[in-house]
Amino acid sequence: MQNTIEKELQEMALKVREHIVRMSTGGGCFTGASLSAVDLIVYLYSEFLNVNALNLYSPERDYLFLSKGHDVPALYGTLAELGLLQKDRLKNHLSLDDYIYWHPNTRIPGIEFHSGSLGHLPSIAVGVAMDIKISGGDNKVVCILGDGELNEGTCWEAMLVANAYKLDNLIFVVDRNQFQANARTEELIPLEPLADKFEAFGASVKRINGHDFNALSETFNAYPFEQGKVNVIIADTVRGKGLPSIQERADRWFCNFSAHEVEQLLLELHGNHYTQLTSETLVVR
Amino acid sequence: MSYEELLTQTALADEQVIVMTAENRALVRNLPGILGKRFIDTGITEQTMIGAAAGLALRGRTPIVHALAAFLTMRAFEFVRTDLGIAGLPAKLSGFIPGLLSDANGPTHQAIEDVSIMRGIPNMTVFAPADEDDLVKMLPDVWQSPDPAYIRINTRKTTYNHATFEMGKAEVICTGIDVTILTYGLLFEQALIAVDMLKAEGLSVGLVNMRSLKPVDEEAILTVAASSQLLVTLEDHFVTGGLYTIVAEVLLKHQTTAKVLPMALNEKWFRPALLPDVLQHEGFTGKQIAETILGYQTAHQQPEILKPQFAE
């Protein structure tokens, strides 16, 4: 990847993180959960997927399914930076005047399907990938999964079916930030050795640093990894990436900061000192 | 025409139709060879099949989806509600061996709350054919509709020749002043027998086939409520949430009332056995229905009840 492109992506990711911090007040959002997926989503929409304002509803477009619905602030921010969603609308977060709420919905241009209930979009992505195969298209289908989401049996059902139907046009990406909602995955429901599990289900698997744009570019561009095999990318990420004061903390999955804290965190994003957080974290599901 | 013949004909005429099953091929045995890639068997994965059907529907397809009614409506319930209901996608759910048609399978296979839970989903339409003739008469309209649909599949053959299907309309078989039986599905067969027996006892008897449960024919319900002394809701379903509830809702919505006798499964699964014995044990033979309505024993003979074709 050219240095200029990498720099542009990093700048966009920083802006998306700013949007997320701004959405983490007045009701809050899944701040920690979504920050881990920012680089992934920014890369996919900016570089990999053939999705833009002109082809949003065309059957020729590529598809991104955000099964880990808690990542949606990262998607709102990315869509806003790309001009698919008016930036002004982000101010309507959680307002009855708009449809920018805690989980994805298709009233937001660029969002392919609603999610929130976990383990649903793998099978929907399978259906779309099946139809592309039947129709003879060459569109790509990407489905982002949370690692905690992998507790849901339907993720594995969909993997079996994707294998049976040789869906090499489908890429599952696991946002492997090591956390379930309220606990570390390896302490609650251990997933490792994760790559082996996917391989045992018939997938072709690559594991990368999910914050490294060069690694993302190199890996996604190697798709399909093997003819006739569903692709899985395990993207190792950090919950709360970019905000050291909430990073890798189980209790900062969902955050609802005070306006003052938001200002402090925006400074922290740009490399200033850690912020002293006093707002209580809401743990909800 | 059989269900499978109609499905084959429809799928061959319309490239957008995809036939799916979660490893339940009783109704679609001949289709894999005919439809090729447009026949999709996802294995024993009702939930994933529903999600994949939603994905296919997103791309403009009409998936016609097969599984046992109990698993299609309950194991996959949240997928039906979330992936099809919220999105309003036109997948068509063929629920096999619903109600008493699961006869000897036991309670795991009994779909006797399916009407209740499916009609509770916004956007979902619900149909319950009396027999195969009724089924093949309704399916062309149901499959062409833009809405998701649940069909309580009933492929039993009877000699009754049903009227043309109209979405949201009941089929009025006959009208009567003393009593009107409202029913759907398998028990239509027995209701016909009950009607004959009641008529032989001197009663003026009506019968309505409530084939379209959602949208429901409110006018037909209000008409018989006004013209009959007694309404009987007859269904192989829990008394809660099915036709008895629908009738109650319609009457209350229109601020009217009627004398209604519910004949349904009351807070219990039915006793598994072969269908003729189940009907007898649960009091759903035509003769028993007539006797329940009359309140005394008749001298009539119950005609033989045919055993079902499938034992899945």
Automatic annotation (TrEMBL), chain A:
Molecular functions per Gene Ontology: transketolase activity
State the source organism's domain of life: Bacteria
Keywords for this entry? Thiamine pyrophosphate, Transferase
Q: What class of enzyme is it?
A: transferase
Q: Does the keyword S-adenosyl-L-methionine apply?
A: no
Name what cofactor the protein needs.
thiamine diphosphate
Q: What protein family is recorded?
A: Belongs to the transketolase family.
Taking every annotated instance into account, which residue ranges of this chain make up the domain Transketolase N-terminal? 30-265
Keyword check for Transferase: yes
* This enzyme's EC code(s): 2.2.1.1
Q: Where is the signal peptide?
A: none
User: Could you tell me which species this protein originates from?
Assistant: Mucilaginibacter terrae
Gene3D superfamilies recorded = 3.40.50.970
Q: What is this protein called?
A: Transketolase
Q: Which InterPro entries does the UniProt entry name for this protein?
A: THDP-binding, Transketolase_N
Task: State the Pfam families in the record.
Answer: Transketolase_N
UniProtKB/TrEMBL annotation, chain B:
EC number per UniProt: 2.2.1.7
Q: Kind of enzyme, top EC level?
A: transferase
State which pathway it belongs to: Metabolic intermediate biosynthesis; 1-deoxy-D-xylulose 5-phosphate biosynthesis; 1-deoxy-D-xylulose 5-phosphate from D-glyceraldehyde 3-phosphate and pyruvate: step 1/1
Cofactor(s) the protein needs: Mg(2+)
Kindly name one Pfam family recorded for this protein.
Transket_pyr
Keyword Magnesium attributed = yes
Q: Name one GO molecular function term.
A: transketolase activity
Any idea which UniProt keywords this protein has? Isoprene biosynthesis, Magnesium, Metal-binding, Thiamine biosynthesis, Thiamine pyrophosphate, Transferase
Every Transketolase-like pyrimidine-binding domain range: 1-162
Question: Record's family?
Answer: Belongs to the transketolase family. DXPS subfamily.
Q: How does it assemble?
A: Homodimer.
Q: What is this protein called?
A: 1-deoxy-D-xylulose-5-phosphate synthase
> Which species is this UniProt entry from?
Mucilaginibacter terrae
